[in-house]
Amino acid sequence: MRALHVEGGAHLYGGAQQVLYLLEGLSARGIENHLACRRGCDLALRAEPFAQVHGMPMGGDLDLALIPRLYRLIRRLQPDLVHLHSRIGADVMGGIASRLAGVPVVHTRRVDNPEPRWLVALKYRLHDRVIAISEGIAQILRAEGLPASKLRLVRSAVDAGRFAQPCRHAVITDRLGLPRGAVMIGVVAQLIERKGHAVLLQALPSLLAGQPYLHVLFLGQGTLEQALKRQVAQKGLVDHVHLMGFRDDMAEIFPCLSLLVHPALMEGLGVSLLQAAAAGVPVVASRAGGIPEAVEDGETGLLVPPGDADSLQRAVRLILADERLGRQFGQAGAARVRRLFSIETMVGGNLGVYRELVGEVRA
Asked: What region holds the Glycosyltransferase subfamily 4-like N-terminal domain (predicted)?
C-alpha cells in the first residue's frame, strides 16, 4: 500500500510528532510512505528514514496554491490514499486536491474547537474517513452532524520508554539556570490563549506563600510569549516563572517535575499529559475536551473546571503537600499510558482505517 501524508506544522511536537511515530510504524509494517510537508522543517529531516519526503511551500489556511501543488504530487505518485494530518490549510486544500485527483482521503482531527454545522457539512464532504484522536473530539463531531459512517477513533500515542527514566535533578536545575533546591512544576504547551497559562498565573501568588522554592516552567512557543512576560513582570513573579521556549530535552526534564499543570480551556487530548504520565509525574489539568481521557481524575491526577484559578490552586497545593499521593498518581499514570496509549496501538488503528477504506474502493 502506498500512502501520501500531508502535514503543515513547522515544529516537531504535537501532531507532527504523532505523524513521525506513524510513519515509522507504518514503514515497519511494509507501507510505502510519502510525506508532503514544509521544505526543510524538523519533521522533513526526521522522517527521511521512513518516508520519501516532498518539501513544498505551505502558507496556511489561505494558501490556495497548495491545491495545485498537492494535485500534481498526487497525480505523479498515484497513492492508494491521502492522509491529511494538519488543519494548517491541509484539511481543505488537501481534500480538494485529492478529490480532483480521484484518490480516497483520510483526515485526522486533533483539536476540539467547535465548528458550525454548515462548515462541517461542506468540509468533511471532502474526506472519506475522519479520525478523531479522542472521544471528546468524536463527540463534538457527532454533535455537529458528521455521519457516523465516516468517523473513527484512534487515540494519540506516546513513546513511554523515552520518558521513563530517572531524574537527574542537579543536572537539570543547573542546565535550566535554577537553584538546586527548586521544586519544579511545568506547563508544556503552545503559548496561546486556549492553553490557559493566565489561569495558573492567577493562582500562583497564593501557592508561593506556602511553597517559596516553587518554580514554574512554561515550556513551549507561541504568539502570547511577550504578553505572558509582561503579566509575569506585573505580578512580581519573575523569580518564579520561567519561559523556556521549545526544548529538545523534554525526556530529561519531565522526570524532574514534581507536577505537570495543564490549565487548558480547550484541548483535543493533550500529548504532554501522556508524556508526563509516562515519566511518572502526577498531573493537574482542566476537565476540557479530551483531557479526561488522558488524566483519570483521582487515579492519575486531578481535574478542575476550566478557567477556575481557585480550584486549580487547591489541586496543585494538595499534590505538592502530599508526596505519597503524587507518587501514587505518577505510578498509576505510567501504567495507564503503557496500557492504553502505545505507539503500536495507534499505528494499528490508523492502518485499520486505511485497509477498510482501500478495500471499499477496490471492491
From this structure: 14-160
Confirm if 63 and 89 have CB atoms less than 8 A apart.
Answer: yes
The domains located in the chain, with CATH, are: 2-157+342-362 (3.40.50.2000), 160-340 (3.40.50.2000)
All cell numbers assigned to 252:
530529561
Identify the bridge partners of residue 297 per DSSP, sorted by sequence position.
301
State the pTM of this model.
0.85
Tell me the β-bridge partners of 187.
218
Amino acid identity for residue 301 in this structure: G
For the chain, 363 residues long, give each residue's pLDDT as a single digit of tens: 999 999 998 777 778 999 999 999 999 999 999 999 999 999 999 999 999 999 999 987 788 999 999 999 999 999 999 999 977 778 899 999 999 999 999 999 998 888 888 888 888 999 999 999 999 999 999 999 999 999 999 999 999 999 999 999 999 999 999 999 999 999 999 999 999 999 999 999 999 988 889 999 999 999 999 999 999 999 999 999 999 998 989 999 999 999 999 999 999 888 899 999 999 999 999 999 899 999 999 999 999 999 999 999 999 999 999 999 999 999 999 999 999 999 999 999 999 999 999 988 777
The burial of 269, by beta-carbon neighbours within 10 Å (0-12 exposed, 13-18 middle, 19 or more buried), is given as buried
